[in-house]
Amino acid sequence: MELQKFTYDNKLSNLFLWATVIWGVVGMLVGLIAALELIFPQMSGNLPWLVYSRIRPLHTNAVIFAFVGNGIFTAVYYSMPRLLKTPMYSKLLGGIHFWGWQLIIVLAALTLPFGFTQSKEYAELIWPIDVLVVLIWVVFGLNMIMTLVKRRVKHIYVSIWFYLATWVTIAVLYITNNLVIPTSFTHSYPIYAGIQDALVQWWYGHNAVAFFLTTPILGMMYYFIPKAANRPIYSYKLSIIHFWALIFLYIWAGPHHLLYSALPDWAQALGVVFSVMLIAPSWGGMINGLLTLRGAWDKVREDPVLKMFVVAVTAYGMATFEGPMLSLKTVNAMSHFTDWTIAHVHIGTLGWNSMMNFGMIYWLVPRLFNTKLWSTKLANVHFWIATLGMLFFSIPLYFAGFTQALMWKQFTTEGFLAYPNFLETVTQILPMYYLRAFGGSLYIIGALMFVYNVVKTAQAGSFVRFEHASAPAKELPKAKEGFHRRLEGRPLQFTLAALVVILIGGLLEIVPMYLVKENVPTISAVKPYTPLELEGRDIYIREGCYLCHSQMIRPFRSETERYGEYTKAGETVYDHPFLFGSKRTGPDLSREGEKTLPNYKPNSWHFNHMQNPRKMSPGSIMPAYPWLIENEIDLSHTVAKINAMIKLGVPYGDGYADQAVADLNAQAEQIVVDLQANGIQVDKNKEIIALIAYLQRLGTDVYKNK
Amino acid sequence: MKIVINILENIAGIEIYPIISMLLFFIFFILVTYVTLRTNESEIEEMSRMPLDHDNDLSSKPHSN
Prior knowledge:
The structure holds 2 protein chains of 2 kinds. Chain A is mainly alpha-helical. Helix content of chain A is about 65%, strand content about 5%. Chain A is built from 26 helices and 4 strands. Chain A has helices at about 10-40, 50-85, 90-110, 125-150, 160-175, 195-210, 215-230, 235-250, 265-275, 280-290, 295-300, 305-325, 330-335, 340-370, 375-410, 420-460, 485-490, 490-515, 530-545, 555-565, 605-610, 615, 625-630, 640-645, 655-675, 685-695; strands at about 5-10, 180, 190, 465-470. In chain A, β2 (about 180) and β3 (about 190) form a beta hairpin. Chain A is globular, with a radius of gyration of 26 Å. The model of chain A has no long low-confidence stretch (mean pLDDT about 95). By secondary structure, chain B is an all-alpha fold. Chain B has 3 helices and no strands. The interface between A and B is large, with 55 and 43 residues.
């Protein structure tokens, strides 16, 4: 048969590779800053953009979408042409994809620290950037699918299935979770509220882990481990079965982020069942990766690339065993809201994602630059320091999680909370936060060695932009072929099949939640926020308060004793977006405003506390927010905000927007008078007034009937 | 949208959908497993060698100077 000649263009995989290297270091450094700010809360000083609660989303977005994202694209642009024996379909689309993605990252860095956020975890980017993300994602998908159409091989290798499933699922998730009504160019409200918003968010959030941090990395694993070990994957059949099982099951597991919350029991149960079942396909992948190295363990001893891969796949196995365990309700009762979650996540990110990226890049740079790795020794040191760094990061946080959970739940023999002051449970685990920062620093030192090594390697060689190859022209599919053979021979149908599989889970889980009225029993005492409270809520979102303070009291005695009545679904019906939070670095604030509860704080306390938390709570690790006292409330969008809320079905009454600002001023005046009576002089147009109004409203509605 | 919601929320026992879906998964899983296990060994072997099957490109010849 005639051989066709063609060339692979390495330009894009090379560009994405260096973007991965650069953003990786940046994202990790931002993480270290956040870790240090928890130990030295004064670190952010008076700089709003440096405060922990604005830096933390920058860290998560940078490592997920910039570091891991660019790593995925490196793998896709390198492996796809070689697996399909054709260059990528379009250099132009590839270029738009690369520069567009970097633009998104830069825009994220220019918005998140400045308080432009949607508040949903890993979906914080404001709506204009979301639009850009979708456009770039479409460009990426188009380029992939057209490359598949042009391919010279009959079969599509399993890595590419994982890439396709990633593309199609992320598109569905991202759009669904980011449906908003804009009130300005930088601000919007999600169309969902409260518990429904929470379900959509964690359906997205969990599947961002599944389809951004897992499936594409498995695709990477299935290509680069065979390459590095120079032997085929252990079981190709297993890869087929675990692929379909994984994408089918993952899409259901989201509700395990909302156990014991106001989410209906049936949805919680679904989340648990599917999470537990996930062990099987996840371990199918892990076993397949590790067993590929059977008979090659002598190579693992010498080759830093394989070492990185082994730790990565092992960490994947650990994290995917721990995940289902954490989704068991009894375990979750203890782990949720504590540092246990942070430890778990970092086994996944520092172990699985980063080590896969490191291994791939150590393998790829010498090939792209036609040389040897500059220093295998340094890469080995990096391997050890990264592994130790990961352990120093995570193990202390496990202890922090266990300790704090036990302290929260501890009762005295008289039946009172043993540690009624939340702060006691924080100061107890501070040494673990020091160790975490130490572990993180080790990891970053390793990452810097990695950067030095790959830069030196690139300098020692010269970039091989084009690689010539040849392959026979594509054979036409034969009429008598098996079902899966035919399916995988047709990329569009294959993508569609994957879409249907994930939509079954998505729709059957999410849709009933919206349709069954009894899922959200209404509470007549619950009223919409006043305009001042709404502005205060937006400030709460802007500053990222929800990152450390939950608003979800679970139905445990240890929680109702500490925080008051457990949270009901009906209380959240006007919460666009929901603010349940996922971590309690500080106490829950669901009932912060309720005067009859023991933890009630007056307006003056909040004023002083925002100015300097340590003035009111010595030893507190909360950052100060002094700019709230200086900044004036932005009233220019209040009318638009109220109108958007009315459009979303919040019963303010027609035409209420016209009197909103007047009402806002009147309520602000009352708070100013109260503060004056306590010796605090402040103008009624300052942001602190709106925030106090919001905090004093929290959780009070259901107590009105008592 | 509102109309659709109104229609759908009156469907009796819509909560049964997740159970249906669970069944769907099991049937689907059995089918995938069955189809996979029946696949011709030589094709499986051919597919699993795809990452290693690069005749002319540099990547099959690492460290060549």
